[in-house]
Specification:
By secondary structure, the chain is of the alpha+beta class. The chain folds into 2 domains: 1-153, Orthogonal Bundle (Arc Repressor Mutant, subunit A); 157-219, no CATH class. It is 41% helix and 11% strand. The protein is built from 8 helices and 7 strands. It has a 5-stranded mixed sheet. A two-stranded antiparallel ribbon has the order 1-2. A hairpin with a 7-residue loop joins strand 1 (66-67) and strand 2 (75-76). It is globular and about 50 Å long. Mean pLDDT is 91; it is low at 1-9.
């Protein structure tokens, strides 16, 4: 136990799994430029009702982790951000471990990481980080926060909003079927794709560097 009464280095172990999930989802919602999430959006993302979301958000607000007003998006406080980033670090390091060490497919790891991140200790997460050589991104290209909470997010735009050859920065892990198709076609971080020949249903889940790519092999998705 720390002097401030929190167990664990980052303090997330004092939170319930539900609170951990809420903070992570609220933070992740805006990571790549989307607007702050509403209670309706939280209900959809977490598979629950708006009434349950409202009750949970009010509890988080009482703990000083979010600010919440009816009919407005939910915002994290500074402490909420710190704990949310700690959970994101756990999730993404576990994904990197599952893919890099246990040979999981990148479309298989999200649900596993969702379960394991709540049980992992800070010591285990730090040892996974060291074992993997302190990776800066997970298998999907999402940046992994450092132990101090800092992270470097690369500049990126959605593939569907661009044209020409682009180098992939990130592929959303929201849909395992999309990930599986992208993987089969070589649409992965650091690959170069032609925006015009990428199926729209896949392009919607891909973020690329803002500048056109001049080198590298072009992925040509199958028809």
């Amino acid at each position: 136990m720390n002097a401030d009464g929190m167990s664990g280095v980052d303090g997330v172990e004092r939170l319930t799994p539900v609170a951990q999930d809420y903070l992570k989802v609220i933070w992740s919602a805006t990571e790549w430029g989307d607007p702050p999430i509403t209670t309706k959006g939280l209900a959809t993302r977490l598979g629950t009702t708006q009434a349950n979301v409202s009750d949970t958000v009010k509890r988080l607000a009482a703990q000083g982790l979010v600010t919440y007003e009816s009919y407005r998006p939910v915002q994290l406080t500074d402490e909420g951000v710190r704990l949310a980033v700690a959970m994101v670090r756990r999730h993404r390091l576990i994904e990197a471990f599952l893919v890099g060490v246990l040979d999981y497919g990148w479309d298989e790891v999200h649900d596993e990481a969702e379960a394991l991140e709540h049980a992992a200790s800070d010591t285990l997460i730090d040892r996974i980080d060291a074992l993997l050589g302190h990776p800066v991104a997970d298998p999907h290209g999402d940046p992994i926060p450092a132990a101090d909470g800092s992270l470097r997010r690369p500049k990126a735009v959605r593939l569907r909003e661009t044209s020409g050859l682009r180098r992939i920065v990130r592929v959303s892990d929201a849909d395992p079927e999309v990930l599986a198709r992208c993987g089969a076609l070589g649409i992965v971080p650091d690959a170069v794709v032609d925006a015009g020949s990428t199926p729209p249903e896949l392009a919607a889940s891909v973020w690329v560097a803002p500048d056109r790519a001049s080198t590298g092999g072009t992925v040509r998705p199958a028809e």
